[in-house]
Write a structure and sequence with these properties.
293 residues, TIM Barrel, schiff base, 8 strands, alpha/beta, 2-dehydro-3-deoxy-phosphogluconate aldolase activity, 12% strand, single chain, lyase, 11 helices
């Protein structure tokens, strides 16, 4: 698995129910433009606002719809047995990978994190992508990632949503250096190109919900060694990543950007998230006009 993976937003109706038609439309669009993977039940998808039954429903619905890309399912939880349940559900419905962020809310030492992931890895044979997102959960050190990757063959890669080239470099050199099949993805638009340059495998970024063409073109031009064009798209993505700073919750910014670009997904968030003022939507509109048109 390499390339452009899209972490899906979860569409909601005004009554906060899941907007299934909008989800179907969006997955169809992403497959038509040629993304390499589709990832459901993750941060941009507001998974913490979903019940266990809704997460399973979305995982099953996504499996029905995704047929021309890798299919990834998020299985993060604050408790290990919940992660095991979601992981094996993803395996049973035929997902290609599960993506597991560390437990959040409770601070854990490295040995506790190792035991957590070990119990999950030993309970299943589905490939696992670790999700390092220290702004939201316990951080995963390079040494912990390496220890897990060398101990468990089904721990297949990591998504690095960390603003540190040195950390990503460490994972690539120390983990991929000993396990060539271990994949490393960035979760930050502004680090897409440099991750590819240092032998990373791609990106998993929320902006690809509304602007997948930029991510796909950067990946394509880099693979074709058209580096001037790759630099151009990298600069565009760096500018576009400002969208995350324009809303109190970045998922709202993504949904508003999709709404501005004509997608049917509504800018509706489940509580406790709130909708910011109209001036923020105008700021997003200006940013999209500057970068995309």
């Amino acid at each position: 698995m390499r390339g452009v993976i899209v972490p899906l937003v979860t569409p909601f109706n005004e009554d906060y129910s899941i907007g299934v038609p909008a989800l179907e439309e969006h997955i169809d669009f992403l497959q038509k433009v040629g993304v390499h993977g589709i990832f459901i039940n993750e941060t941009a998808g507001e998974f913490t606002s979903l019940s266990l039954e809704e997460r399973k429903f979305l995982a099953e619905k996504g499996r029905e719809l995704v047929n021309s890309a890798f299919y990834l399912v998020g299985a993060a939880s604050t408790n290990t047995f919940g992660v095991i349940e979601l992981t094996n559900h993803a395996r049973d419905i035929g997902a290609d990978y599960v993506v597991i962020a560390p437990p959040y809310y409770c601070p854990l030492k490295e040995e506790a994190l190792f035991r957590h992931y070990s119990m999950v890895a030993e309970s299943t044979d589905i490939p696992i992508i670790l999700y390092n997102i220290p702004s939201c959960a316990n951080p995963l050190s390079v040494q912990l990632i390496k220890r897990l990757a060398l101990e468990y063959p089904n721990i297949a890669g990591v998504k690095e949503t960390i603003d540190s080239v040195n950390h990503v470099r460490g994972v690539i050199l120390e983990v991929k250096g000993e396990r060539e099949d271990f994949v490393v993805f960035t979760g930050l638009d502004q680090h897409f190109l440099n991750t590819l340059i240092i032998d990373g495998d791609g990106r998993i970024m929320a902006c690809a919900n509304f602007a997948p063409e930029l991510h796909l073109e950067l990946y394509k031009t880099f693979q074709e060694k058209r580096f001037e064009d790759a630099f151009l798209y990298a600069r565009k993505l760096t500018e576009l990543s400002k969208v995350y700073d324009l809303a109190s919750f970045f998922g709202l910014a993504i949904k508003l950007a999709m709404n501005i670009r004509g997608f049917s997904i509504k800018p509706v968030l489940r509580p406790p998230y709130v909708i910011d003022g109209d001036n923020m939507k105008e700021e997003i509109r200006k940013l999209l006009k500057k970068v995309l048109y």
